[in-house]
Amino acid sequence: MKGNIRENLNRVLDNIREAELRSGRKEGSVQLVAVSKFHPVSAVVEAYEAGQRIFGENRVQEAVEKFSEIGKKDIELHLIGSLQRNKVGKILPYVSCIQSVDRIELVMEIERKLSSNSDDQRKTFQNVLMEIHTGEESKSGYTSEKDLFDSIDYALKSGKVRIQGLMTMAPFTQDENLIRASFKKLIALQHQVVSRYPGLQLPVISMGMSNDYKIAIEEGSTMVRIGTAIFGTRE
Q1: CA–CA distance from 65 to each of 61, 91, 192 (Å)?
Q2: Taking the model in full, what pTM does it have?
Q3: pLDDT at 65 over 90
Q4: Which CATH superfamily is domain 5-230 in?
Q5: What is the pLDDT of residues 151-184, one digit of tens each?
Q6: Rg of the chain over all Cα atoms, to the nearest angstrom
Q7: Which own/partner contact pairs does 116-121 have at CB distance under 8 Å and 24+ positions apart?
Q8: Phi-psi region of 118 (alpha: psi -120 to 50; beta: other; left: phi over 0)
Q9: Distance between terminal CA atoms of the chain?
Q10: Which stretch of DSSP H or E encloses residue 157?
Q11: Which residue in 27, 78, 84, 144 has the most C-beta neighbors within 10 A?
Q12: Which residues contact 9 (CB under 8 A, 6 or more apart)?
């Protein structure tokens, strides 16, 4: 898919609004993360100039290099790809939200870096989403409720790692029933977590990509991660 990024972005935003309306949702209840991985700085700038402010990247090195060059203070950068513990310190100064927290060791490392007094680390807290494995295609994410709850317990005691919600990736399939089942599983887990931790709101449900975001919105997503439908296929 090619075309004008501004036109693509507006088309996606229109589709989001239509899906909100169709689902009886309030307009603006779903946030858009424009996934710019593997796309050049010029593509991000074009989307920015069209009004987009939240961007998603998969790789730490690419994210740091790209958004350091862009240098826009009002951009929210979300890391949506797998994060290695040794890259935590590098990404923290740049990222608004880490959507791919999938193990307690990562929670502990984020907390450790935030507690350090290094000159390049002035943040006092980090917003995160807990990535949940809900589909066969997903290679990462929590599969054990115990592991998830242990991570939440640690984060709540720390206070520095602030859990904003849950994230998942549905299986890449044409079977709508499988896709919906994956999304329903995440919503059910959200309810379970909120019931277990009354003080934890989890307002963000990040699910839905270019091929399934309309379904995700119907199933309760509050944040969709869209790359191809905005930027086109990667070369």
Answers
A1: 6, 11, 39
A2: 0.95
A3: yes
A4: Alanine racemase (3.20.20.10)
A5: 999 999 999 999 999 999 999 899 999 999 999 9
A6: 17
A7: 118/89, 120/89, 120/93, 121/89, 121/92, 121/93
A8: beta
A9: 11
A10: helix 145-158
A11: 78
A12: 34, 47, 50, 51, 52, 230
